Amino acid sequence: MTLYTLLVDFTLASILILISMFMRSKIKLLQKNFIPASLMAGFLGLALGPGFLNILPFSVDIGSYAGVIIIFVFASVGINGFSFTPGNMKKDLKRMGAYASYKILIIGVLIFIPITFSILVISKWVPEINYGFGLILATGFYGGHGTAAAVGSTFENLGFAAATDLGMTSATIGILAGIFGGLIFIKMATKKGYTQYVKDFSEISEDMRTGLVKPDNRVSIGTETISPIALDPLAFHVALLLIPSGLGYLLNTYIADTWGLDFPTFTIAFIVALLMYAFMGKGKKGVYKYVDENVVNRLGSSATDYLVFFGVASIKLPVVLEYALPLGLLMLSGVIIVILMLWAVGPLMNYESWFERSIFVYGYATGVFAIGLTLLRVVDPNNKSKTLTDTAIVGPLNTPIELFAWSAGPAMLLGGQHWSFIGIYAAISIVCVVISIKLKWWYWKIPLGDRPDASALDRDG
After folding, report:
1. pLDDT at residue 458 is higher than 70
2. Which residues contact 324 (CB under 8 A, 6 or more apart)?
C-alpha cells in the first residue's frame, strides 16, 4: 500500500458517502428504517468494489482500515476523560460489572453451545464433519474475518483443510445477520419504547429524518480554543487524538513482542488517552481547558462513519454456499443464540439503557466491532448510554478467554479433549450467571419500559 492508494480508497469512500447522504435525504424508505449514510455507502462499496462487480478501483487494503480507525475512535472517547459520577460510584461499578458479565457470557455460550450441537446433532447427519467444526461459528461470528483466518490456519495445520473457507463464510453470514437483523430489532425496539435516545419514526423531526438540518436549527460543532495564528484549532485536536492512537499501537506491539500478550489496540489507546487527560488536568491551571469536547466528539464521530463504510465494503462473499447443509445448521444455531442473548438475557443483565448496550453486543457478537458500533450509532449517536466507554474499560477481561479459545481450541477439539474444552466454556457461562445473580446484577423483575438511561442517572445524582 502507498499513500496514493490510501488517498484513492478514501476518495472513493467519500464519494459514496456523499451519494448515500443525498439518497438518505430524498428516499423515505431509508429514512423510515433509520439507515445511516455510512452504512448505505458501505453496501454500495461492497456491490461496486472488488467483492462483487469490481467497478471501483479499491485497493486490496480496504479490509484493514476499520481496525485502524477503531483505535482513533476510542482515543476520542478517552481524551475527553472518564470519571465516576459524584455520589454514584457504586452505580457506575454496578453498571460496568453487569456489562462485563454479559459480554463474557455471550462469548461463552457462542463457543460451548454450537460445538455441543455440532458434535451431538450435525455430525450424526454429516459424518465427515469433525469435532472442531462447531468452533467455526464463534471464530466467524465473534472473531470476524481476521480471527477466522487465524484459527482456520491452525485447523489446517491439524488436518482440517476447509476450516479457513468455512470460517470466512461464518464471518460473512454473521456480519449480514448483524446488520439486517440489528436494524429490524432496532425498529421493533423503537415501536415498543425500549430505545432511550431515538424514538418512533413518527415522533422524529424532519431534520433527523432527512439528515439535513435547517438553518434555524443549526448549532456550532465547536469553538476556537487555540489561536489560528499559532496553530489551527482543528489541527490541535487532531494531534491530541493521533498521539494516543499511535502510542497505543506502539505500546501494544511492545507488549506483544516482550511478553507475548495480545490486547486489543483500541483498549491500549483508550488508556493512553485517559492518561493524557489526567496529565493535562481539568482545573483552571490545566491544559485541558483548551480542549473542546464537542470538537473531539465530532472528530471521533467522523472517524466512525469511515469505519462503518470500510467495515461493510470489505465483506467477502465468494464462499457462502460451501458446506451448505452443515454450515446452514450451524449458522442457524448461532443466530438463535445471539437473538436470545439480545432479547432475553440483555435486559436481565443490563439495567439503564439496556437496549442500546445489548444491541451493541449483538452487533459485536455477529462479526466485527464495526457492526456493533454501527447499530449503536443508530440508537445512541452521542454515546449517552456509556456503552463505548464501558467497552473500553471491561474489554481486556474478554481477552484471555478469547485467546485460549482461538489458540488451544483447535488442538483440544481435534485431539480428543472436546468435552473438556466444552466444559471450560460452559463453566465460564455458568459463573457469569451466578455472579450476576449473587451481586444483584440481575434485573428480571423490572419492566423493560421502566428502565432509565445512563445519562439520566448522572443528572439525577
Report:
1. no
2. none
Contact criterion met (CB below 8 Å) for 186 and 378: yes
Q: Retrieve residue 34's grid coordinates.
A: 433509520
pLDDT per position as a tens digit, 149-167: 778 888 888 888 888 878 8
Instruction: Tell me what pLDDT residue 446 has.
Output: 81
With a cut of 80, say whether residue 340 has pLDDT above it: yes
What's the pLDDT tens digit per position in 234-248? Answer: 999 999 999 999 999
Pairwise CA distance, residues 440 & 349, whole Å: 9
Cα within 13 Å of Cα(420), Cβ side: 11
Q: What is the CA radius of gyration of the chain?
A: 22
If you count DSSP H runs as helices and E runs as strands, how many of each does the chain have, helices first? Answer: 22, 0
Question: Is residue 390 pLDDT above 90, yes or no?
Answer: no
pLDDT of residue 31: 79
Answer whether 349's CB lies under 8 Å from 95's CB. no
List the grid coordinates of 241. 487524538
Distance CA 166, CA 148 (A): 8
Q: In a 3-state reduction of DSSP, which class is residue 61?
A: coil
CA distance 145 to 316: 9
| pLDDT confidence of residue 321 | 58
**pLDDT value at residue 114:** 96
Instruction: Evaluate if residue 176 carries a pLDDT over 90.
Output: no
Alpha-carbon 145 to chain mean position: 14
Q: List C-alpha distances in Å: 267 to 139, 185, 224, 270, 442.
A: 21, 28, 29, 5, 27
**DSSP line for 313-343:** HT---TTTTTTHHHHHHHHHHHHHHHHHIII
324 or 17, which is more confident? Answer: 17
Residue 77 grid coordinates: 472517547
Rounded to whole angstroms, how far apart are CA atoms 106 and 397? 13
- The alpha carbon torsion through 23, 25, 31, 36 (nearest 10 deg) reads 70
Phi, psi of 117, deg, nearest 5: -60, -40
Percent of the chain with pLDDT over 70: 90
Q: Report the run of H or E that residue 394 belongs to, with start and end.
A: helix 387-394
Q: Return the closest-CA partner of residue 101 out of 445, 337, 436, 356.
A: 436
Which residue shows C-alpha cell 450435525? 122
Nearest CA to 110 out of 393, 351, 405, 412 is that of 405
